[in-house]
Amino acid sequence: MVENTRQEVRDGDNMNILVLGSGGREHAIVCSLARSPLSETIFVAPGNGGSAPGAVNVVLDMMDGEAVVSFARAHGVGLVVVGPEAPLVAGVADKVRAAGIDCFGPIAAGALIEGSKQFSKDLMFKYQIPTAEYAVFETADAALDYLKRHPAPIVVKADGLAAGKGVTVAETDEQAAQAVSECFAGRFGSAGAKVVIEEYMTGPECSLLAFVDGVHMIPMVEAQDHKRALEGDKGPNTGGMGVYSPVPIVTELEHKEMILLMQKTVDALVSEGIDYKGVLYGGFMLTPTGPRVLEFNARFGDPETQVVLPLLETDLVAVMLACSQGKLNKIDLEWKQDWAVSVVLASAGYPESYEKGKLIRGIEEAEALEAVTVYHAGTHRDANGEVFTNGGRVLNVTALGSTFEAAREQAYRAVDLIDFEGKTYRRDIGERALKGRAAWE
Ligand code: AMP
Ligand code: GLY
């Protein structure tokens, strides 16, 4: 997010904001914050090649809470927004809050809901929040012994943060045993010191994110990610290849049930004495017996944010401050009645190895289309303003439309205008949703 001069004249109450992170999610957050009359300069650490009015990239170690506080103090920052999970789990929000600065993102005790699968599963068990049956193991022998009594399909998860790669949905007993062995052999470092083995569930997945202020919560619109690398939901899991919002296949009953489960989880955190402020991300599976939780995350989803925030009409700065200050009950969220579809453009080879440094053309042409925004993820902008690939997931091409089909068609029209060597994407984002619920059966 390179420097850009603000066009509008701003009045008294504006504040400087610091956003931590470098993905498409953070670019979408920055774009929404930049639309607020409350924001002045938005510092992004480290940011990427994307830009927004008033946003400037800065060099700062986002894992170092003291450094974040020093920067915030030196630059008159009134709100720190933590994008990814790692700084939250490392306690950066604790430091910012302790310094008396508003922070959007939970303290470490709250971020454990993502940072430890065991913590999250135990919390759900204690408060009767429906999820897959599970068992936790600290040795390979005990886990392998359990697998003998629980045949595939079964799911093996590293307990700690593994950048989305710690989950194996094992279709055979051999795959399950291999996943257990690899975890304990150190494939995910200390994140794999414990292993959670889970019952295999079936159904469409749906993400429901909620703003939380320690006590109150307000749900956002639902979104559905496409985690697999290849069309037809095949190939390895990725960080997400495309997403849409809202989710047309969700029934009214499921919608209500998911909101109830999110509220139950916020109440559980309150009962545990955890002052949770930020986003609670519920990853649900819509099983034949109703929605069950796959996982919780302690942050905005990526790429869910790239479709959810463009639909939010309410001032994001005001919402984030209300979360930080425990005043969410004073806010009503308003949403556009549109549909949003976002297609991820990735580098050839992703999620395995890929090349960087390829010139990207056509972003401006794509953004000239009506209702299209191109969020940058793995990009770098050079001194001449040219943009190059700099990661696996490169761009998120988001389009809004008054119907699901219109949003989808517009997103792909924009995708076709962008070009770089190795450009890879799925042509079938949203295709299953168009076919309806039967496409999951
Ligand atoms: P997680 O990071 O825990 O959400 O897991 C990543 C992906 O693995 C999920 O989005 C699901 O597609 C799949 N998955 C996780 N847990 C289960 C489960 N218990 N049953 C079936 N699939 C699962
Ligand atoms: N889209 C999945 C995640 O943010 O974890």
Word description of this protein:
This protein has 441 residues and is of the alpha+beta class. The protein is built from 14 helices and 22 strands. The chain has helices at residues 24-34, 65-74, 85-89, 92-98, 108-115, 117-126, 140-149, 173-184, 252-271, 305-308, 316-324, 363-368, 404-417, 431-435; strands spanning 15-21, 39-46, 55-57, 77-82, 102-104, 134-137, 154-158, 167-170, 195-199, 205-213, 217-219, 224-225, 228-230, 234-237, 242-245, 277-287, 290-297, 339-346, 372-376, 379-381, 387-389, 393-401. The strands form six sheets. A five-stranded parallel β-sheet has the order 3-2-1-4-5, sandwiched between helices. Strands 12-15-18-22-19 form a five-stranded antiparallel β-sheet. α2 (65-74) crosses α4, α5 (108-115) crosses α6 (117-126) and α7 packs antiparallel against α8 (173-184). The chain starts with 14 loop residues before the first strand and ends in a 6-residue tail after the last helix. The model is unreliable at 2-11 (pLDDT under 50).
Hetero groups in this structure are: adenosine monophosphate, glycine
Number of E-type strands: 22
Instruction: Indicate the percent of residues in helices.
Output: 25-40%
Spatial ordering of strands, largest sheet: 3-2-1-4-5
How confident overall, as mean pLDDT? Answer: 94
Distance between the termini: 42 Å
Beta-strand content bin: 25-35%
- Radius of gyration (CA) equals 21 Å
Q: What is the makeup of the main sheet?
A: 5 strands, parallel
Structural class assignment: alpha+beta
Uncertain segments are: 2-11
- How many DSSP H or I helices? 14
Q: Outline, from the CA principal axes?
A: globular
